[in-house]
Design brief:
Three copies of one chain form a homotrimer.
Chain A (H helix, E strand, L loop, with lengths): L1 E5 L7 H13 L7 E5 L7 H11 L8 E5 L10 E6 L3 E5 L5 H4 L4 E7 L1 H4 L9 H15 L7 E4 L13 E3 L2 E4 L1 E4 L5 E6 L7 E6 L2 E5 L11 E5 L4 E6 L4 H5 L6 E6 L1
Parallel strand pairs in A: 1-2, 1-3, 3-5, 13-14
Antiparallel strand pairs in A: 4-5, 4-6, 6-7, 8-9, 9-16, 10-11, 11-15, 12-13, 12-16, 14-15
Amino acid sequence: MVALITDFGLKDHFVGVVKGKILQELEKPPFPTFIDITHEIPPQNIVAGALKLKFSYRYFPVGTIFLAIVDPGVGSLRRALVIETENYFFVGPDNGLFSPVLKEQKLSGIYEILTERMLRPPYSTTFHGRDLFAPAVAHLLKGVPFSEWTRPIEYEEIVSIEIPDPEPIAGGYRLDIIDIDRFGNLITNFSQELLKGGRAKVLINGQEVRLVRTYSDAERGELVALFSSEGLLEIAIREGSAKALFGDDLPEILILFFS
Amino acid sequence: MVALITDFGLKDHFVGVVKGKILQELEKPPFPTFIDITHEIPPQNIVAGALKLKFSYRYFPVGTIFLAIVDPGVGSLRRALVIETENYFFVGPDNGLFSPVLKEQKLSGIYEILTERMLRPPYSTTFHGRDLFAPAVAHLLKGVPFSEWTRPIEYEEIVSIEIPDPEPIAGGYRLDIIDIDRFGNLITNFSQELLKGGRAKVLINGQEVRLVRTYSDAERGELVALFSSEGLLEIAIREGSAKALFGDDLPEILILFFS
Amino acid sequence: MVALITDFGLKDHFVGVVKGKILQELEKPPFPTFIDITHEIPPQNIVAGALKLKFSYRYFPVGTIFLAIVDPGVGSLRRALVIETENYFFVGPDNGLFSPVLKEQKLSGIYEILTERMLRPPYSTTFHGRDLFAPAVAHLLKGVPFSEWTRPIEYEEIVSIEIPDPEPIAGGYRLDIIDIDRFGNLITNFSQELLKGGRAKVLINGQEVRLVRTYSDAERGELVALFSSEGLLEIAIREGSAKALFGDDLPEILILFFS
C-alpha cells in the first residue's frame, strides 16, 4: 500500500508519472495499491502538507508507505529521507514534512537516501518525485536492504518544523487558523484536549458564537464553533462557507474558559 | 469493488482517509479496487449527488458497493443505510441520495446501520465517512452477517426525493436544467423517451435551435440541442461552453412537438 | 495496467463510468490497475493531450494500455484506433493525439476499431469513452484477437499533428509556450538537445534572465529559465508563478547562442 500526498496538482501528468515510475521499477506484480490523500497542497507549502499528513496517516493499515512530496528545495542539497516508525514508512524530502507525525509515532529508524545511487541518468533536477522518490519507494516495496541505498542518520540531524500553538491570553487563548477545508470551514490550532473537560465560549471578531456538537445543531446560515474530526476547534456555517463570509479578511478567534 | 461518490472535494484528506480506513478495517488482502465516480458534488447538494449516481451505477460490475456521501445531516439522528438491490450494494446517509436508483433497481433489502455498534470511540460527529461508513463498507466486504450490525427497515421508512419532471405546457414542455457538466453543457430533465419517436423543436429564450445528433454535427460555436449520453436533452455549443454563454442567467428551454 | 488521460474533468461521472464499464465488460478478475495521468486536459485541446501523453508514457511499465480521449469529433465518422508499439498499447480517437508518441516508439501495428461491432445498443453519440473505447480496452485486456474487432490500417492513413518547432532567428530561436504547469511554469518548445552542449542566454521580453539548474538556485521571486524534467526550456519564478506574473499577456522568449 502506497499513500500519496503532494503539491503536484491534478492538471499535469506529475502524479500519474510518479505512480507509473514506481510500477516500472517494480517491473512485475505484485503491484501496490495506490491511495491518493491529496495532491492539492498549495505549492511549496510544507506546513500545509505536514498538517494534512498528520490528519491522515493513522487511518491507514499497518505497513503503509507514505510518499509525501512538497519540495521547494528539489535539486538542491537537501536530504531525501526514508523514515520507519512502529507502524509505517515515510518517504520524502527532509524539510519538516514529517515533523508532526514523528511527534506521535515511535521511531524505528531514519535513513538518508543515497541520491547518487538512486538517480539514474538522464535525471532531472526538478522532478525528484519521478527520478528519486519513485525508485526509492520501489526499493522499499522490493525489500532491498537499507544498507544498499541509504545511510542511517539521527533524529537531531533532520529538519524540524513547528505547527504554532495557540497564544495564551487572559482567561483563554487566541487561535490561529491553520487550515481551511473544501467546505470553507476554518480549522484552528486549538485542540479539544486543552479544554480539559471544562466549559468555554468562543468569540469571533469579539462576537460570541455558539459552540455546537455538529453542523446540523446550528441553524441554516448560523456561524458556529465546533470540534473537527481531528479534535480541533473549527468555525463553520451550516450549509454555508465561513471562508466565503470572511474572504481574505480572516477573523480573530478567541476561546475563553469559565468555571 | 467499491465505487465512491461524495462532496468531499480533492483538496483535503477526506477521500484518502475514507479509503485508508476501509483498508485498515480489513487489515489484510484481498483489498478492494476503488473507483472514484466524483468527489466534486457541490457541498451538501443531495439532488446533484443522486443524479450523478443515477447516471453512473449501471455501468459498474455486478456486486459493486457504492459508497455515496453527501450528508448535511452528519452527526444528527438521520439514519445510515445499506441497501441491497438485484445487482449492487449502496451505502450512505438516509436523505434521498439513492431515490432515483431505487426507482430503477429491483430491491433485495434495506438495512439501517446500527451506529452504536459501528462508531468506535473516539469518533467524530462531523466525519462519518471515516468513522461510520468506512467501517460499514468493510463489514460488507468481509461478509459480516447483516444481523450483527444492521436492522432491516421498510422502503416506506426511508427518505425519498424527487427529481423534478419537465412542466407540461401547450404542445410540449418547459424544461429544468438539472446538471451542468465540465464542458458547459446544460443537461435538462427531458428524457428522449418522452419524444415517443415523434418530432419536436427546441426553443432557447424563444429562439429555435437545431436538434442535432452529436456535437460535430453543429457548426463551431453554434448553440444546439441534442440528447446526452444519458438520454436527456442537453444544450451545447460545439467546441465551446453553453454555460459560459449564459453565465448565471440560465435560459428558458422549451420543447414543442409537431406532427 | 491501464493509464488514462482525458479532457473529462473530475466534477462529472465520466471518468468513473469509463473505468466501471471496462470492469463490467471484463466481468471477473483479474482486474487491471488504473493509473490516472490527468483528466484536466483543456476541453477538446488535442495538442495539450498529445503533449502530456508524450511527457508521460515512457515512465510506465512495458505492456501498459494508454486510453487517451480528447475527442471533439465524437459521434462523427472519425476513426477509433488501437495502436501497438514495441512497448505499449494506445487506444483513442484518430485525431493526432498519438502523433508525438509515434515519432518516438517503434510501431508494431495500427488498427481501426470496427465501431459497428463495439457499440452495443443503446449507445450514445456523445460518450464514446463509455460506449466504444471502454469495451475496446476490455477486448485488449481479454486478448480477443484483433481480427475480430479491428482492421489493420497504415500509418499514412491516420491523422497526424505537429507540435511546432521553435522559430530560428539570427543567432538563436524564438520559442513558443506549449504548456503551463500547475506551478505556473511556462514550458517552451526548446529542447535541451538543441543547445548541443553550447552556451546561450535567454531573453524574456528583451530582458536577460539567468539560466539556472534548478528552482532553488534562483533567489525567491526571481524570474529564471531552466530545463524542465522533460528537457524543455521553461520560465519559472522560485516559490512563485511565472503565469501569475504575466497573466494572459504571455511574454516573448528568445534564446541566443554565444561561443
